[in-house]
Every structure is written in structure tokens, then in C-alpha cells.
């Protein structure tokens, strides 16, 4: 019986083997035979593919699924999170990597990729693509045929090397494997409740001081046991909402029942004293915040609070981690107050997205914003990101330099094509004067017209924005408070981290004592270094820190005891000296100040040589020292108020030196750095007032553009408003146009109005805005007899003439007699100059040439009494003719 059973079994076995052989032959004939491999006790099939002869070496491998990705080389957690209610789980996988070696530079090497779920023999998706040395490749799988569900998965590759520095893959026979997990997204999960927490720093890291990089441990205690098979992560942010460190923990089945989770934050950035916020996430869903104030203590208590989707911290955590624009703005400084505000404004974007999903009309609101900062660059940078961050529902955006807008052939096109656009304007100061006022008017009309859907962002410095709003109250009114953003100066933490970031680009590193010393010194000089540019910080790092460190090492170098590599890259506390650096910078600034002082003295020399005008000379000298004083306060980080306008009014009779002083002011203000050119552009009413509507504005705009960088001197300015009641006179248009320039905080222009004192007072009364725009008012008094005599002496001395005692006495008497009979039109120094040049010297020339005396130097240099007498007779004859004509109002300078 047993023999028969064995015989039957053998027969059945042979039949089974024959059946298997037939199936194999059938599969072979179809060309679809599959290889198999074993992984974690299970057997998996690999679809038939062309075998890879040459293995490909790679770097930077990342596995992507939808918008999520992880890179094993960076030590990132190999996990993806899926929402069960989201049909997007049918997204496709992709493998991104850089091919470093295919064995030949021009040889294509095929690599096969497969995605498996553990325990299921067939791949969910497969992709094969040839790789080429030196190229970065994104290998896209076809879409999944089924929804991706939570579980354990792995990526299988055939043709990738899994050894050497790229050993991020596990070897499975001839294949390489990368395991990963798929977990349910935390949005629909029940989250654990954080009850209490504390923060600890290892005592050995506090030996050098409280402020150092390294480890900070957070222990969070929960009110109930933690759920198994989930991820808990902690993201630690500074007061500026910049990521300081993060840590992730996987709660496995072995940890079931535990109520405490310990996170270990390791940061290369210094842990500064201040407030921190830790966002706890359950499967990447924020559910609690932990706040603490770090003061350098070994143990610090923390405050736990649950989060809802309506909380600002929730939005910031989600947006900072997932939004591309937030990522781009991560390095922006001075944003501590703005980031929470922007997170709240993003709710409008969410609402519009929801409307799109429901096939409803989006919320369309014309939004007008203003972005300011200490420097135009930071305002412009933020303004560029706002349309992408705050989805206005528009279709595009355009940045426009207002100076270029002003000069383009068709400036009206920008606003004509504004529908559906966000227009970002920078360099807005040019809209406050000249032709820019026309564009400003067009902009006001566009804002007032609510028929078109569009948005506007104005960006610039505080001064530019104040000037713009002063010129256009209508624009100021439409920019609501919630849409006004000011980028502040960087915080102390940001400044310290700046230094670390720049040093981190090199091979050099701060030790713990050096980190604490850097914090102390930056805090002591925060006012100064917070205003530094990136170039100034880089200069201090490379020359002020690394340079001192190298000098220290060279000074202690002994061939018999060479320093180790670690010693040669370690920056010590003694290598940091902001004091020395700032003192050296101050010396350079002092040198520049001395150079400016020399230039100022040279430009003041001619003014000082003028007779009289003592109050004006003292005022200009005071102004120079005040500017030097403010510049030094800026270098020391102290507050400096906005520079006041320096526009001037000169009053006085003809010939008192107003035009000459205006010319000298151009040189002086150029030496002070207040004017870029320093020339004088002189004009008067007939050159400004047009004959028809619009011509006055054209003339004024052209003149203002020509006067940029110079002194604009308007002679007989009172003639612009000859009759306060006659508003048809175009002179009023000139005054109104000038007001726009006068409101500019730094117009690179000095406006000087000159004329008779009484008439100039009437001009100021005709327009209430004028008086406050001219803070400096200098009256040029008539010269007395001694001053006119001094002017005559200087003129004759300059031309190499001498007065005899008798001639001097007669000249002095003549001046005194002339002053007794002078009127308001007396020409003062001009009269003195004309009396000498047109009276005395011609009389002397005639006398000398008619004499028979031999030629001598003294003969041709000496002015005698007869020459003065002849000039007096000539003046008397001319005076009779002049009295018959009505004197001209005003003067020629």
C-alpha cells in the first residue's frame, strides 16, 4: 500500500513539475517572465526589463510624492502623509538625483525604479529611464492605479550603486532598496493633549556662557498615552518667527502607553536669550504650541497651549513649512511684527481658493498697499513677494520704476492695462515733482475709478512715502492701516545670526566662548551694527574676525609644535573685537570728515571774503557741524531725525550780494554732500510764466529737471504773485508747482527766492504753504560807508591799484554823500563797483595817457584825487538823466 502511495505521489509530482514547466514556457513565449527577490521575509516580483550592466553612482537622491519629498542623504525622515478624503492620493512618485558616474561620459545607462507596498508582491508603479553622467534627472513614475493608503513601502532600483559615500540605499541581492512609510495626515486625527513641558540645556554647554549653539532639549508631558504608529515633530521658532531647530520622533508600537516625548533640538545657530515658540505637530498637523523664555538657565519651565486652525500660530506653522513664498521670505529681516499680520491676511487667499473649488465667484476687492523700510531695497523685496503670498485674485503683477515710467514714450499704458493686474511702484519720490505730478494725478484717477479690478502696491523709504502722501492725500486715504507694512531694523538675534551665517560660509567656526563673546559685543554695539549692510558684515567677518585669528595663529606658530587642523579653523573669543573694528572705521570716517572739512573751508573762503553777511556765515558753519554731528550719531547707531529742508529766502535791496551768495551756496552745499552738482540755475518770472494754459507747467517741469542737484535761484520771486486776487495770472501756477518740490524731504535741490523785503512778505502771505517750506530767511542789509569803502579797497587791490591819501579821502566823502541821498533802489556794492570801474579807472586812464611823464609802474598803479573828482562829475551828470525815468522794480545781481 505504501509503495502504491509513493508511486502516486511521484506521479503527481511529475505532473505538477510538467505543469510548471509548461507555464514557464508559455510565459517565456509571451516574453513576460518576471524575476523575484526576497525582502523582510516576503517574495516580490520584478517585471521583465532590460538588465543593467553598469551600476550608476549618484548624489542628492530625493523621493517625491506630490508636493512632499524627502532626501535620505540629508537624514530626513522617510515618510509621506496622505489624507484619506483627498483624491490627490493618486499622485505620482518621482525620483530626483544627480548622476555622477555612468562609467563613460557619453554612455547611457538604463536604471529601473519600482514602488512596492510591503507584503504585496507586485509593484504599484514602475519606471525605467537612461541616465547620463553629469546630468540631474527627474524620473517620473506613471500615476498610481489605486489610492495610496497608510502603510510601509519601499523604492526598489536596479542599476544604482548602493555603496561608498552614497550608501543611503539598502542592498537586496543585485537591487538597491529605500524603505519609507506612508501615514495618515494629521488633519483628521485626534491629537494628544500637551499638559506640561520644560526646556533643558546640557550643563557642559553653559560653561562658557548662556549664549551658544548646540543642544536644547524639550520634554513634553501629555495627559493621555501617545497613539502608536505616528510621528510627533517639534519646530522651534525665534521671536522673529525664524526656524531655529526642529526634531521628529516616530511613536512605534513598542512605545505604546508612554505619556512623555523628549525632543532634542540641535542648532548651528546661537541660542539667544529671548522668547521661543515651539509648534508641536502630529503627522505634520500643528496641534499645540509650547512657549518659553530662555535666559541661560539649565532648566526652564514652558507653557503649553492647544492650537486650532483659526490661531495665528497654526497658520504660520503651516505656511512657513509649506508655502514657497514664505520659504523665499525666510531670510528677510525686520519681519517680526509683519509675519503674523501677513498670516492673518492669507485667509482671503484661502477664501478665494474655496470659492474656486465650489465654482463660485471669488472675492474681488481692489487692494492698495504701502510698504516702507529704512532702505528702498528691503521694501521693494517684500513688495515683490506680496502678490504671490496674498492671492488678490489677479492674473499677474508688474513692478515699475517710477523714474522709467516718467521717461517712457507711452506712460499711460501702465494704468490703461491695469485690469486684473497688481502694479508695484518703486522709486516713488519722482512722482512728487515736475512731470511726475501728472502721473500722480493719473494714479489718483485710477484709484478713484472702482470699475476696474486691480491692486496697487507702493514701496519705498519712509521719507518717500511721507512725501508721496503729502502730495496726494487721496492715495493716503485709500491705503488702509491693515495694508501698511513697515520693515523694521533687524533684531539682535538676526544680527548675531547674520555674523554666524557669513562665517558659516567659510571653514572657520566659533567655539562656545567666542559665540558668547560675539553676542556680548554685538549687543553692546547693536545700534551701529544693525545698520550695517551685508558687505560690511562680510568685511568684518573676513578681516575683523578671520584676519585676527590668522594673526594669532601665526604669532604662536612653532615648527616643532604645529597646530592641528581643528585649532587652525577654531575662532576664539580673543579673535573678536568690534571695538577695535569700529575705532578703525571711525578713524577712516574722521579722515573723510577732515577731507569734508577742507572742502567746506575752501568753499567758504570766498564767502568769508565778502564784506558783511556775518549771520549767514555763522548759520552755514553751524549747519556744517550739525551734519557732521548727525553723521557720527548714525555711525554710533543713535537715532537721527529726518533732515529738514534747507530752502532759503533772501531779502534786500539790489547789490547786497544775493546772487553771489546763491552761487556760493551751491559750492558749499555740494561740499556738504547736500547737492550732487552745486551749480546755480537762475531764472525769473518771464522765463517761468507761459502765455497759454499748460505752457507754465511745461516751463516749470523743464526747469525743475535741469535744477536737480543744483541751486534754483528765482530773482524777483514776488513778481510771480503780482495780485493776490487775480487767480487768472499764471504766476500762481509756478508757486503751486514749486510747492510739490518743497515738500520733498531730500529733493537734491536748493530753492532760493530773492527780492525786496516787503514784496517778499506779500508773496509768503499769498500762499499759506510757502512760509513753512522756507525755514531759512536771510536779510541782506544795505552796506554802510565803511563797508562800501572796504569793497572799493578790495576791488582796487585785486586789480593792482593804489589810492593816494587825497584820493582816498575824496572817495570816502563821495560814498558818504551818496548814502545820504540814496533810495530803496540804491545798488549798494554794484554801485560801488560801477563807480570804480566805469568812473574812476577810465578817468585815470585818460589822465595818464594825456600826460608827458615817463612811463613808470607807479604812474600806472596810482589813483589820484583828480580821477575821483572826474568820476564824481560823471556820476552827477548821469544822475540827472536817471531821475527822469521811473526806476525798475527789483534788481539785477
Automatic annotation (TrEMBL):
SMART domains: AAA. It comes from the Bacteria. Residues 644-764 form the AAA+ ATPase domain. Keywords: ATP-binding, Nucleotide-binding. Pfam families: AAA (PF00004). The keyword Transit peptide does not apply. This is AAA family ATPase.
